[in-house]
Design goal:
mainly alpha, two-stranded parallel sheet, about 45% helix, globular
């Protein structure tokens, strides 16, 4: 999961969302929150993404990919 919604993440003022995009965004936000509430552990890509969720949900969210260096693996 990258982030809960564009409303939480922020929209680019140059490209405001349409009404349909706003509705879809709200639905994705609800789905993301529901996933975190029903899962024992949810993986996000960064500490920044984790902080976009409400504080009460952050305890079951784990940052996995921040600082992921493919060169070290190769």
């Amino acid at each position: 999961m990258e982030f809960p919604s564009y409303a939480d993440h922020g929209w680019d003022a140059k490209y405001p969302p349409t009404e349909a995009q706003r509705l879809t965004d709200k639905n994705m936000q609800m789905l993301s929150y529901y996933q975190v509430m029903k899962s024992q552990q949810t993986i996000v890509t960064s500490e920044h993404a984790k902080k976009m969720f409400p504080r009460k949900l952050q305890s079951s969210i784990v940052v996995q990919f921040e600082g992921f260096d493919l060169d070290k693996i190769a």
